[in-house]
Amino acid sequence: MKFCCQQLGKDATNDFEDVGHSDSAREMMDKYYIGEIDANTVPTKRKYVPPQQSYNQDKTPEFVIKILQFLVPLLILGLAFAVRTYTKKE
């Protein structure tokens, strides 16, 4: 059973064999070989626990936030245009 850091502790034997490593890679594997791992000590798959939804501390409704995310850039753009227009020399 081969383990690899890219396999995150899983059995990488099939992945190693499928790639078609060269003889020098196999010699290198022998050089860095540490030992066999007991398959019973490998942790089982954990159940996915989705992250908790973010908490809106100020209780602002979500649609108000979305509207502000749209309107604030437009207001800044409008202000920049107004400043450019009224400060333009004739």
TrEMBL record:
Positions of transmembrane segments: 63-83
Record GO terms (molecular function): heme binding; metal ion binding
Key word DNA damage present: no
SUPFAM superfamilies per UniProt: Cytochrome b5-like heme/steroid binding domain
Pfam families on file: Cyt-b5
Cytochrome b5 heme-binding domain: residues covered: 7-37
Matching InterPro entries: Cyt_B5-like_heme/steroid-bd, Cyt_B5-like_heme/steroid_sf, Cytochrome_b5
An example Gene Ontology CC term for this record: membrane
Keywords annotated in UniProt: Heme, Iron, Membrane, Metal-binding, Transmembrane, Transmembrane helix
Family assignment from sequence similarity: Belongs to the cytochrome b5 family.
Protein's name according to its UniProt entry: Cytochrome b5 heme-binding domain-containing protein
